[in-house]
Design goal:
With 367 residues, the protein is of the alpha+beta class. 25% of the residues lie in helices and 20% in strands. The strands form 4 sheets. The chain has an 8-stranded mixed β-sheet. Strands 8-13-10-11 form a 4-stranded antiparallel β-sheet, with no helix packed on it. A two-stranded antiparallel sheet has the order 1-2. Helix 3 packs across helix 6 (174-199) and helix 4 crosses helix 6 (174-199).
Length: 367
Amino acid sequence: MAPATSSLFVETSTDTSPADATKRISVKTLVESPGLTSIPSNYSYSTNPDESAGSNPDEDTFPIIDFSLLTSDDPHQRSKTIQDLDRACQDWGFFMLVNHGVSERLMKEVLEGCKEFFNLPVEEKMEFAGRDIWQPIRFGTGVDVKVEKFFFWRDFLKVIVHPQFHFPNKPKGFSEVAREYCKSTREVTTELLKGISKGLGLEECYIEKKTNFDAGFQLFAVNLYPPCPQPELAIGIPAHTDHSLLTLLIENEIGGLQIQHNGEWFNVNSIPNSFLVNTGDHLEILSNGRYKSVSHRAVVNNTATRISIAVPHGPSLETAVGPAPELVDGENGRPAIYMPMKFKDYLERLLEGRPCNLDHVRVPVAE
């Protein structure tokens, strides 16, 4: 594949047909070009032979956590919900969160704001184009080819919203809605981390304190997946884990998220007005492997545009997260399996074009 001239351009052959046109700006623009019936070759994703297609689970397969019971004044209800939360994090690394208190109005408004942003003229979106992961506001498409050898079928907007709030100044009103939404997700995540701390047998505010969560790194990451003429050949985002503690995700009414469980891939059909919550790398590290950072991916379709908003919540950038000492007992077969590393250093690997995952902080096993 020929290298990309910037994060927003795709270089293919010099053929002028829609599928092979040079310098197509963003997947959305590519899809809107007349006569597109196939995807450019550099969007073609070669599926790993071990990767299975996603299947539809039984209706009661996925864990569902009722947030109102987690924060209940009834100690019995709270205790039972903490147990359910602990089990969901252990068994799945994923759950649907209902009755979370974030208004349906706000969730719809922030999704609408994302749609309006991607509908802005290309020139206006290009004001936010960039590759640097520390750029506070970043619009882009595909992926850095230093890491992958193909392009993802998605456009994205990534904004650092905590500890300092940044946001595009367009479309009008979007920033105010996003600020309210991000504040709400942070409040929900704080309560979830309290429940998770208790589930791990730690004091309620343990994770907040040990990760310096008050100064934690929070990202507002929107992905736009336009209809794809050959969805079986493309991928929205391939299998990956999140670097955070917890990620809260919502989507428009179009599905596409798949999670891996016991080696199988499952389609996630979200409950209306719920959050889809997944555990990230740093919760696996802190729990010393008791909780697993769940592998997930985004697939595309040929009929409708999907929009998802993922809000990962991580430690502060200067905090080194390692296994909680209370969860390590080398004499009784529970040695520390991860080494501490500053969250910023963990993310810096992305700038170097290297994979950023748990493998490089895993303690080597003695032969």
